[in-house]
Specification:
Distance between the termini: 14 Å
Strand content: under 5%
Radius of gyration: 22 Å
Shape: elongated
Helix content: 55-70%
Length: 243
């Protein structure tokens, strides 16, 4: 059972989103977006030519006019598919979701916030019930912070998919997975004589900084990020199997 759970966990952690999908490859979709932008958007594509003056939740979380055109044209294509009895396609690596109060993926936002709430509750319980002088206290204290940060960025990313929010979501998710492996190994090294645990910590910190720097400074490499998650997942599986 543990093996099946761990393998399933690895695959769940290594989901990959594509840059382009079937829906946004259709000429009718591209033509719809271009026409919408010409009719409703200013030259920069950010602002509407004639704002309606009403409060707009979408604008509150940085929905540009061009983004709104993509959203409206996406649903025009989906409606056309449904009339023909075809299943809806993906657009820009995502399935169509109905926007609610400006939130791009409201269900995912809710689940991320629920995960965040549970982590905060358990973190408070940890602080109340575990002695600060316990051997692994600092390790799990920081782990709670890493997990809370991860779910914060997950909620932000699913609210609005932008290059910055996507980067922070991927980095935070990898950080949580990588720190899980770090915590598992530190359970063994924490009582080891000499500076072994300190050296291991420095190696892990250096690796994460290098990983983040590569994704930040270069074009985001989805394949590399997925491979790194798989590698960490395999190491976690081996560590659990040994225990």
């Amino acid at each position: 059972m543990n093996k099946l759970f761990t393998l399933g966990f690895i695959f769940l952690l290594t989901g990959l989103e594509a840059d382009a999908s079937l829906g946004d490859s259709f000429p009718s979709y591209k033509s719809c977006v271009d026409t919408c932008k010409m009719e409703y958007c200013q030259t920069d594509g950010y602002y509407f030519k004639q704002p309606d003056g009403k409060f707009n939740w979408a604008g509150l979380i940085q929905w540009r006019c061009s983004d709104d055109c993509r959203y409206r044209c996406m649903w025009a294509i989906v409606d056309n598919f449904e009339r023909k009895g075809w299943p809806p396609p993906q657009f820009h690596g995502k399935w169509p979701f109905i926007r609610w109060m400006g939130l791009q993926e409201p269900a995912s936002v809710v689940f991320s916030l629920l995960n965040l709430a549970i982590h905060i509750v358990m973190f408070r319980k940890f602080r109340n019930e575990v002695r600060p002088n316990s051997p692994m206290y600092k390790v799990w204290f920081l782990y709670a912070g890493v997990c809370i940060n991860c779910w914060v960025w997950s909620a932000i990313f699913h609210s609005r998919d932008l290059p910055l929010t996507e980067l922070m979501d991927y980095l935070s998710a990898f950080g949580m997975v990588f720190y899980s492996l770090y915590g598992m190994i530190m359970r063994v090294l924490i009582r080891a004589p000499g500076p072994l645990s300190v050296l291991f910590t420095l190696v892990c910190v250096s690796f994460f900084i290098n990983h983040a720097g590569y994704l930040v400074l270069d074009q985001f490499d989805y394949q590399y990020n997925m491979s790194a998650n798989i590698a960490v997942g395999v190491l976690m599986y081996r560590q659990l199997h040994q225990e």
